[in-house]
Amino acid sequence: MELLSEKGLPTSRSEEYRFTPVVRNLEGIFSGAPAPAAPITASLDLIPGISANLLVFVNGRYSPNHSKVIDNSLTVKTAATPAPKADQDPFDLLNQAFADELIEIQVPDHQQLVHPVAIVYYIDHSQFVFANPRWSLRLGTGSRCTVLEYTVASSAASFFNNKQSTIEVRENARLDYILIQRGSRDEVMVNNTAVWLSSSAQALCYTCTLEGKLVRNNLSLILDGEGIDAHLHGLYLVTGQSLVDNHSVVDHRKPNSFSNELYKGVMDDNGKAVFNGKIFVRTDAQKTNAFQSNRNILLSENSNIHTKPQLEIWADDVKCSHGCTTGQLDEEALFYLRSRGIPKDAAKGLLLTAFAGETLEGIHDEAIRGFVESLILEKLHTAHLQ
Amino acid sequence: MLKIQNLHAQIEDKPILNGINLTVNAGEVHAIMGPNGSGKSTLAATLSGREEYTVTDGTVEFMGKNLLEMAPEERAREGVFLAFQYPVEIPGVSTINFMKTALNQIRTHRGEAPLDAVAFLKLMKEKMKLVEIDQSLLNRSLNEGFSGGEKKRNEIFQMAMLEPRLAILDETDSGLDIDALRIVANGVNALRSKNNAIIVVTHYQRLLDYIVPDFVHVLYKGRIVKSGTKELALELEEKGYDWIKAGLATV
Predict the structure, then answer these.
(1) Per residue in A303-339, pLDDT tens?
(2) Is B162 within 8 Å of chain A by CB?
(3) Closest CA of chain A from B9, distance in Å
(4) Which of A10, B79, B213, B216 is 20 to 30 A removed from A177 (C-alpha atoms)?
(5) What is the ipTM score, two decimals?
(6) Domain range holding A220?
(7) Across the interface, do B88 and A332 touch by the CB < 8 Å criterion?
(8) B85, B86, B88: best mutation site toward chain A, by most A Cβ within 10 Å?
(9) Phi/psi at A317 (nearest 5 deg)?
């Protein structure tokens, strides 16, 4: 708390939060401790027909009663929050000030979890909720795990979910991490996730933002080994008055690793988005291949995107590229589809679905990929086509 | 079937079509020829409903309805098909998925039930043979990375699937070698019937060796300046477009 009051929360004057006035959106709503939870009636399962290891945070606090571990090898423990450090993100410090425990999730060495791990933030709306969930996940050597993370909020009240997590992926382990943000239209979400990767680890981090008043994702991948294969995919469909800000860091610290970042966005109405992608290639990280692409479609005059690639390369024998595009739907493609009898709205839908669909590549589990695709379709249909 | 009267059209204030008159009946194949810039592609674009062209005068009646009032998709559902000179590449949309959506739109419009997956696949396989196109190509993103010949064959494949009343082939021969030209033309010929009509827009006579027209029209400066039978195309090939231009100059 001392560190936090020294630093203060970021305003639009701080470079890292220039476009994203989190604090302004929170003014007047700090009411301190989380509200008590009423009995949960909403379904906590996200995907029909897929059973998962459910880890449920009720108003930011882990609730063993609502959680259900079905893979025996998965362990979940409660630990004390570690001591804060000065270089932490201000929202991380804020979380530390409020979260009194850290949930430690572990997949042992060489274990391949049969079921995904679903991390669910259940928000009870009887009053404004300020939630500070905090967890860490460790994938042991050679293990494999799919993580699904999402919010369940049953009514339209507002809340602030200030989530902090760290993931450690040990040698030869494989992580599929899928974050789905569609809790509520009035959700304010700050999402700090740091993923540490060891040699020969594989990771796909997929951030899919479909709803939320203000969403800020800070995702860092630290490639602290050789032969790592890391993919960061993101999709943001921003409508209404929403603001979605993705800040990512890919930090290549050792040689011979690969990273590929693909973020795509569709903005409509007054929707605003920010993409900031940092890639660091340290002196030791020779033979790094690091690629980044950010592509955006603006559907309305009042929507906008701020995109900023930031590559800092200290090694000399590397292959890096970045590119960003912003445009409207391709009129020629639209006409082609219409000239075959497809109505304009459906043609737009087809093009947007195809545009968005590319980000789904790389999700290993077909059922999960299909489900995420259906969420995207649903959003495209309700938001853009009517 | 199609009745064009005194059609004037422009793009960005530049008049391109200056009074086209043309009647096409069911069962007929019409070739529209003409030098570059004569308005051939504009005519095709105007008939298919491209929005960047503005019709300033004249009427187009299709099956007794005012074609010019219809959106591009409505024209397609009524049975107008444009085979593009430059088919568009659409990443992420497979030809199969696209065709299924399009066909079922058109079927619904005709009052027919949408095809289920099995029936669709059966129809598709049948039509694939017509243009010697491989299914692996149709599974891929629409036209993405296709060769020139593959793109044009895909156009005719789509025509075969949608069974239009009126097909407009816009420079379908451009960029094709002789083998691809033959395949495409064979596909088109197989689709000819007494119930449909085809307008072949082309710069060269060579496509007309394969798709033999009933009528040939020469377009120049946005007007049809000469009409005849297939012999006119041969005469044009021999004498060149300067013959037309010279003929007009002396009038």
Answers:
(1) 999 999 999 999 999 999 999 999 999 999 999 999 9
(2) yes
(3) 19
(4) A10
(5) 0.95
(6) 2-330
(7) yes
(8) B88
(9) -105, 75
